[in-house]
């Protein structure tokens, strides 16, 4: 047990010195890192530097009592689990506290096993993560990846090992697992971190625009090409180009991409001379490319050029210990931009989330969190809402309107990325006048300013 809890921190708060010492000794003996405070105010001061995973507090204390400390803790650490200690006569108060979001309560006197079980359950179901400012300078590159699972840790170590080399990396994963987050993390820990990271979704680019988008074009290269366009390879020069959903790249363009990678140069459409490029390629897809090669849909030589190092990003079902961490992360994001007074999920609701199959991976989990928060009418999200959200799975094929909207949004976003927010240039590539183009941007809540360097 010591190895499992060695990095977990517990803050114990009680104005009874003997009980404070007893609880601290029991937790220290189990391998936890422990700090103690004899008042709520002292506890808040300790939190500034100790960053606990769990607070265990007496309910009745002079000055700031346990519930006041719970409220102040939630303001600073919204996902922090709190266990309340209570005398027999104050059990009704403790039960009311759990309805407000306190993890659980222990009735005095309690034995060591009760204390250790409650502590382990609180940290397991409501872990604190990277939102708690625990990232060191050395780990900032991976700060966007919310995880504590052994499988993800192994993957991130592999990513770090290959980051400084210039070999092409292929990320093999299901949809919704966070391929772009991993690619960006690799870029940030590499020698290319100060240069651009450019991401493009190959599934969102019309076949006729592939060469122009990736390689660029000269003025007058084709009808509507009223000015020179810098392609994504040039935009990423010196940095990293992330080609997501590479399996959806048209077959007739694959040979051109292979030549560009081999010769380390691109020729914009309409140009007579090639342009040298220095770009690190990271690609990803949810498709089985080996099967696509057999079906004649993907070039084998390009596959081996892209897949020098393969990283397998595990599906959410293989990293279930990350689910509470991700749930709290998404919950905090939602609450930061809404007026909802939600303190968290009930233990039963969290157990359901941990046990769910998650065919849509992290993207589906985020959707479930958003839905349950929106429908919740009390401080704690109950298991019933989670069950309903899990039953209301989207169909395998979206409606035509939804698919069209999704394509439009991705296409417009990629256009703005490629033109670094130049609306005039993006509108010309899209074959729309500026007024129509602005209406499309407004429809999809896209701001050109956000894409400008």
TrEMBL record:
Residue ranges constituting the Response regulatory domain according to the UniProt record: 9-123
Domain Sigma-54 factor interaction: 145-374
Keyword line: ATP-binding, DNA-binding, Nucleotide-binding, Phosphoprotein, Transcription, Transcription regulation
Pfam families xref list: AAA_lid_14, Response_reg, Sigma54_activat
Matches recorded under InterPro entries: AAA+_ATPase, AAA_lid_NorR, CheY-like_superfamily, Homeodomain-like_sf, P-loop_NTPase, Sig_transdc_resp-reg_receiver, Sigma_54_int, Sigma_54_int_dom_ATP-bd_2
Sites of 4-aspartylphosphate modification: 58
PANTHER family in the cross-refs: TRANSCRIPTIONAL REGULATORY PROTEIN, TRANSCRIPTIONAL REGULATORY PROTEIN GLRR
Name of this protein: Two-component system response regulator GlrR
UniProt organism field: Bowmanella denitrificans
Lineage: Bacteria, Pseudomonadati, Pseudomonadota, Gammaproteobacteria, Alteromonadales
């Amino acid at each position: 047990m010591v190895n499992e809890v060695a990095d977990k921190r517990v803050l114990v708060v009680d104005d009874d010195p003997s009980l404070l010492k007893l609880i601290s000794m029991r937790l220290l003996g189990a391998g936890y890192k422990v700090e103690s405070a004899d008042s709520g105010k002292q506890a808040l001061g300790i939190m500034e530097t100790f960053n606990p995973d769990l607070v265990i507090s007496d309910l009745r204390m002079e000055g700031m009592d346990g519930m006041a400390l719970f409220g102040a803790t939630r303001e600073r650490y919204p996902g922090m689990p709190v266990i309340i200690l209570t005398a027999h006569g104050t059990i009704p108060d403790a039960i009311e506290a759990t309805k407000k979001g306190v993890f659980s309560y222990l009735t005095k006197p309690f034995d060591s096993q009760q204390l250790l079980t409650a502590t382990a359950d609180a940290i397991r179901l409501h872990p604190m993560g990277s939102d708690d400012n625990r990232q060191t300078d050395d780990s900032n590159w991976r700060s966007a990846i919310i995880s504590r699972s052994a499988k993800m840790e192994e993957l991130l170590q592999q990513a770090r090992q290959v980051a400084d080399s210039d070999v092409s990396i292929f990320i093999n994963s299901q949809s919704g697992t966070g391929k772009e987050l991993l690619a960006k993390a690799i870029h940030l820990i590499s020698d290319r971190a100060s240069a651009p990271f450019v991401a493009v979704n190959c599934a969102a680019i019309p076949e006729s625009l592939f060469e122009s988008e990736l390689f660029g074009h000269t003025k007058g290269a084709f009808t509507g090409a009223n000015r020179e366009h810098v392609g994504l390879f040039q935009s990423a020069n010196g940095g990293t180009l992330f080609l997501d959903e590479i399996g959806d790249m048209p077959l007739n363009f694959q040979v051109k991409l292979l030549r560009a990678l081999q010769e380390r140069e691109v020729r914009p459409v309409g140009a007579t001379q090639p342009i040298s490029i220095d770009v690190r390629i990271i690609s990803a897809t949810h498709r089985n490319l080996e099967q696509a090669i057999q079906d004649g849909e993907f070039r084998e030589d390009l596959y081996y050029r892209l897949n020098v190092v393969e990283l397998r990003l595990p599906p959410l079902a293989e990293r279930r210990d990350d689910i509470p961490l991700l749930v709290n992360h998404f919950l905090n994001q939602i609450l930061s931009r809404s007026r909802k007074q939600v303190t968290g999920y009930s233990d039963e609701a969290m157990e359901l989330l941990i046990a769910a199959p998650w065919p849509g991976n992290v993207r589906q989990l985020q959707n479930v969190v958003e839905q349950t928060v929106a429908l919740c009418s009390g401080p704690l999200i109950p298991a019933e809402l989670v069950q309903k959200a899990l039953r209301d799975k989207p169909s395998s094929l979206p409606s035509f309107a939804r698919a069209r909207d999704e394509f439009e949004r991705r296409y417009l976003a990629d256009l703005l990325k490629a033109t670094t927010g130049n609306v005039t240039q993006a509108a010309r590539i899209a074959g729309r006048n500026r007024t129509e183009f602005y209406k499309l941007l407004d429809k999809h809540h896209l701001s050109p300013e956000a894409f400008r360097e």
